[in-house]
Amino acid sequence: CSGYPVGVFFIVLNEFCERFSYYGMRAVLVLYFTYFLRWDDNLATAIYHTFVALCYLTPILGAILADSWLGKFKTIVSLSIIYTIGQAVLSVGSISDLTDHNQDGSPDNISVHIALSMIGLILVAFGTGGIKPCVSAFGGDQFTDDQEEERSAFFSLFYVSINTGSLLSTIVTPSLRGLECGIHSKQRCYPLAFGIPAILMAVALVVFVAGSRMYKKSKPQGNIMFEVSKCIGFAIKNRFRHRSKEFPKREHWLDWASEKYDKRLISQTKMVLKVLFLYIPLPMFWALFDQQGSRWTLQATAMNGDFGISIQPDQMQIVNPVLIVIMVPIVDSVLYPLIEKCKLNFTPLKKMTVGMFLASMAFVAAALVQVQIDKTTPVFPAAGQTQIRLINLGAYPATVQFQHEPQIMNLEPRGTTGYMTFETSQLQSLSINSQGLQKIELLGDLLERKRYTLIFKWNNAQIDSDLLSNDVTSKPEDGKNLVRFINSFPYSVNVSMGFKEFGVLPPFSVTNYSTFSGGHGPYIIIAKVPYSCSGHSKDLGFGSAYTISLDACTQFGINVTHYEEVAPNSVHMAWQIPQYFLLTCGEVVFSVTGLEFSYSQAPSNMKSVLQAGWLLTVAFGNIIVLIVAGASQISKQWAEYVLFAALLLVVCIIFAIMASFYTYVDPNEIEAQFSEEEKKEDQKDQDDHADEKQDEVVSQM
């Protein structure tokens, strides 16, 4: 097809579907752990990074399986089947109705969902990791040696398919998660958010198998990693055997493998180990980079996502691929040529050092954003404390005095005090005075770590009061809003807000909380008393909680008062863009340059070894995060961000020192020297063989 093997188009389409499946599932994963499986932030972060680490450990197994036993085609097909099953199991495990026998919207047996989710994720990790090193290489195998230009164009198209798949999935699956679905009750639609990636993976498998007859399928030819490992192992073993001083030292410890392995392999292994040594500090970069999908997504849940349209917290991850598309051509076409014109020696290792520094600064920016978020986070009662809020629902002023407090509080009609914090043991009673009447309210049964609202009003020569005990004691999750109503009318009222019915509310009583999605207000409030009147709620924002008092129903509509329990998120998600920008700039100069440097310093037959080493740095980086998340005693999230920034800054300095001692080599030139020496040795062997034949002829004469 236009000079291209037809089979490569099946491979490109397969890669698009597979990347959509993987990144779509991964985008919503940490929120699934937090809000569906009910894990705390640290456990959700640890399991998320364990999964990502496994995804980058398994490519080695996939490469060995393909090169030594099954071949690339059979490896891709078999592991894709495992991958598809894993996505399907994960989707099934996210169905709340599976164990929701009492139909209250929450799973009754969360262990079943955890087990299915973990099985699904393990299968996905083996599937996506196993095929990772095989698909691109299999695509390259479809071209002949004289199709270098077409092969280069294929890899460009292949890279575009990866970014397009990840970009679209990061938009689509968080939007699907934000929908509400369910058989018995409505909740976040995780089955659909995981189900679409599962379908896309099944499509990827079908597309890949459909092109089977058009592929060139090479037989397994052995894995170079085995040879390198054997060479290193033999050198160490041989050196240990000859550790006595009577044996002369050799120039390099790998030279102890010369008794069994040829000079070319030993020299190539030396070059690879020099590069792998520089890989040692690199996991710290990935420890920060992959927190986009965990800590940064959780940070976004406490922010305002109103961009004119409502943005889900996990959709902020789209900033990275968008900036990648913008930054790569700018850096390659503008920044690097400009630096070159200034005659600055900006070597690949220096670029990688700058990338680490930028990533470190990204986490400083994240810490600054977190400090602003913490300033707006409401203070909830700690151990031994209770919070009380007073609301005067009456038409007359009132004064309130706590038994243990000398201060007298004045409350205007429809007025409130906001939440006040007290030691639970000190709360015994309070007195309410209005229009010459007094009422004593007993408080001795209040619980610690709880919030209460005391509502009262003067009503026909008496003071009515009620202590509400189910106030919100945590920030509403996932940017949702909580609303409840108080009926201040002297008769029952049927109230609804938006499409949610609160039912019939008796006089001076309160409804339960109902959940409203963030960024979708204001809502229409309708009250039937028994005639209907309506009005609008205020814009609830994201992550707020309100008690709304129904005050009066007039010809102009309903009069309501909003009493804020938890303020909406006030720090905008746009403030995350600087940290994403810094991290993406770091990725561009670190990741792209790192791979380019590695390939330029490795022999042609050793590139797979370096690819495996590079993927292992990503895996170890995620292991660092799960260790910190599991073992850290840091209570403030901003402090953890600063810790990671400081660690990477220290590693950056260490890497810069290591890089200053590195000597760049040209593997092609070294291989050419070996080839020349081998030719000379072959020619010498041929000459010796010819001389032997000539001697035989002379002796026979």
Automatic annotation (TrEMBL):
GO terms for biological process: protein transport. It is a multi-pass membrane protein. Residues 674-701 are annotated as: Disordered. It is found in: Apical cell membrane. It holds the Pfam family PTR2. It catalyses: L-alanyl-L-lysine(out) + H(+)(out) = L-alanyl-L-lysine(in) + H(+)(in); L-tyrosylglycine(out) + H(+)(out) = L-tyrosylglycine(in) + H(+)(in); L-phenylalanyl-L-phenylalanine(out) + H(+)(out) = L-phenylalanyl-L-phenylalanine(in) + H(+)(in); glycyl-L-glutamate(out) + 2 H(+)(out) = glycyl-L-glutamate(in) + 2 H(+)(in). Residues 676-701 have a biased composition (Basic and acidic residues). The keyword DNA repair does not apply. Keywords: Cell membrane, Glycoprotein, Membrane, Peptide transport, Protein transport, Symport, Transmembrane, Transmembrane helix, Transport. One of its GO terms (cellular component) is apical plasma membrane. PROSITE patterns: PTR2_1. One of its GO terms (molecular function) is symporter activity. The chain crosses the membrane at residues 20-37, 43-66, 73-90, 110-131, 152-172, 192-211, 271-289, 318-339, 351-371, 609-629, 641-665. SUPFAM superfamilies: MFS general substrate transporter. The keyword Protein transport applies. Electrogenic proton-coupled amino-acid transporter that transports oligopeptides of 2 to 4 amino acids with a preference for dipeptides. Transports neutral and monovalently charged peptides with a proton to peptide stoichiometry of 1:1 or 2:1. Primarily responsible for the absorption of dietary di- and tripeptides from the small intestinal lumen. Mediates transepithelial transport of muramyl and N-formylated bacterial dipeptides contributing to recognition of pathogenic bacteria by the mucosal immune system. Interacts (via extracellular domain region) with trypsin. Belongs to the major facilitator superfamily. Proton-dependent oligopeptide transporter (POT/PTR) (TC 2.A.17) family. NCBIfam families: 2A1704 (TIGR00926). This is Solute carrier family 15 member 1. It comes from Serilophus lunatus. The gene is Slc15a1.
